[in-house]
Structure prediction request, 846 residues.
Amino acid sequence: MAGRSERDEHRDESASFGRVLRSWRLGRRDFLVLAGSWIGGATLAGMEPAAEGAPAPGGTLVYGLGFDLDDTMDPQVTNFDSTIRVTLNICEPLVWEPVPGRFVPGLAESWEVSPDAKTYTFKLRRGVKFHDGTPFTAEAVKFTMDRVVDPATKAGQSHDQLGPYDRTEIVDDHTVRIIMKDGYAPLLTNLNGYLGIVSPTAVKTMGAAAFARHPVGTGPFMFKEWVPKDHITLVRNPEYAWASPFFKHRGPAYLDQIVFKIIPEASVRTGTLRSGETQYVDDIDPLQYEALKRDSRIVVIEKGQPGSGFVLLLNTTSKGPISDHAVRLALEYAVDREGLNRTVFHGLNKVAWSPLMRSTFGYDPATEKIYSFNPDKAKQILDEAGWKPGPDGIRVKGGQRLTLDFPIIGRPRDKAMAESVQASARDVGIDIKVTPLERAAFYDLVKQDRYDINFMWFSYGDPDVLRTLFHSANVNAFNRARYQVPEVDRMLAQAAATTNRTQRAQLYARIQQRVLRDAVVVPLVDTITHNAKRAEVQGEYLDALASYVWLYDVQIRK
Amino acid sequence: MATAGPRRAASPAHALLRRAARSTSALAGGALFAVIALAAIMAPLISPYDPIKTNQRAPLDAPGWSHVMGTDNLGRDVFSRVLWGGRLSLVVGVVSVGIAASSGVALGLVAGYYGRRVDTLIMRFVDILLAFPSILLALAVIATLGSSLTNLMVAVGIAAIPNYVRITRGAVLSLKEQEFVLAARALGCGDPAIILRHILPNVTAPLIVLSTLGVAGAVITGATLSFLGLGIRPPTPEWGNMLADGRELLETAWWVAFFPGLAIMLAVFSINLLGDGLRDVLDPDVRL
Prediction:
């Protein structure tokens, strides 16, 4: 669950994701709730129905990985989701998250979260062994968490994921307490990935550098081989007997081997699936979607991501016309989200009306009724506010032209989205000046508050992402609307401190409605992961973040 | 050149045309280029659609009767965009060559005529420019000045300066010891008069050839920068950024990238033909 916002440099095109946490540094008070709310696999949708042809244990799965690793396989050091897609099979988490906000046992059999979300107590599974033969105990959990904050580790994403970590206390061999400096709700969500448990013995005897080439954990698969830029091979762990009750079978994994082939080019990756060279691929080429859907040998897997999708944030503090509520309101009606989805994403994402994506806990379906695509209404709002069309069709009021500054990072996807928004706005007489910039220049402009419109995209497992986008404390971070409303700040804090799920959802609903009525955010599309597999592959599961694929139950039909 | 006498009399343009007409490649290139340039200039009159008008609900229409070159990923008419894009691409080519040629020739004349320290200074400056690949230099200029059409032309222009300085300086070095220059000096002409009235007219032939070919190079450099997303603001069409838009669609909608690519190719080809033809008739000795 890497942080995925527009800051991420390495995977511009990919639609995989994760989350960044840094709002706690800005004085957040978190809480949590979701403790122990795990559900059994039987109640979950998403598993493949048994197809004809008996599945058989054994065999090799070739998985086409959409991104290369960042030169490490140490889950605590990496910054890439693609690395975790591999290492989750080797270094298991304390809890798994199959559906946003729902957790199931992993290496922890049960857990408890204090009401202030500062103390997390985990009861650990017994009889678990690392691949190096050493037993898994509370010591390994403490070792893993402590190494994240040890500067010598040079921790990557895991450092953000662990939040305001204070210390881990070993209660007994199989009970461990993780203590936060401040309440930190997203910890459970974040355990499912970059905080996979590593073997302390292996790290100490091999040294960090060697461990990064040969990770050792408790997982159903063991590391075998890594040929950089080409592939990684994992083999079945024959000792494995501690699968989560979430999974469908016990004992060792079915597959003999998994080969992760690194194939960064989407069209090539998709081609290997069609030719049978791979049996599962990340992020298909959207242009081949139709063909894949028609192909009976192939199953396309679609799952919405949680968090905040692609949105426009409208700068409320700008000296230009965007600070006029009527102009912002007109934009809400003017932007053709459906057109944008078709032109930029080939229709594969979903038109959005809320800053929270549909698969996020707390998403309010009532937001879908607030605005619609209605250029005439947009024109009427502008007319009534005194913005009259000038000679070139662009509206003018009191000598001021209705021109908005929209700096973007000059990469193809952002440019295409910006051009689509620009075209919609021009149809109602709003001139959007899109300036593609090189990354550093773009951040300079943002820092100097010299923009009217900004893109944002923030995949995240919890609705608390709204605090990142709309809390006044984050004006110099990701609150690019520079939105500062004390009442919203209060609701965000209250929602974060509410343990009752219903009340919490109500608060988030009010916040979504409020920011939409203030027209500081124009939601564009919800992002949806599109993976694909050969039909003979059965039993894989795409996790809550629609990023990691769990392969323990996978069988290949003969 | 058979004779090296002053040639500033009788309209040089006429002379040039008369001689160019003797070369078929110059004629063919010139004619093709004229057609392309004319189409670009007349874009507002002849383009069937508004080049920035989108049709987002039905993008990527294949070439047919309603859209001869199809529509792009935002549903804009590719033919109209190629026409309008030509205006920018050709302007970038011509203006940046203007920038390069005027400053390059001035520096070359001064360096060649005065020699010594001035020469060393200017030529070391040129060496510095030459040390960077021209596209890198242009990128650096854009990164420093910011991304705009003007800066794009300046960037392409600066990157092309060294050629003009070196050609001009070389020609001046061989001219300045000749009798007619000495004669002018003996008659009391000042340096500016000698440089501008006696030397400059005699170095124009290679410069015309170089500039013509330079336009082709500048069109490509301009398109390259705009392909990289620099210089041209969306939704303004320009051949380079149209090519970039179409790049990802090659497998499914070949026409989005094909037609701007064809336009770049034809424009550059015609200019090169013209340049080669001019070189053959004007200045067979020069090797560029």
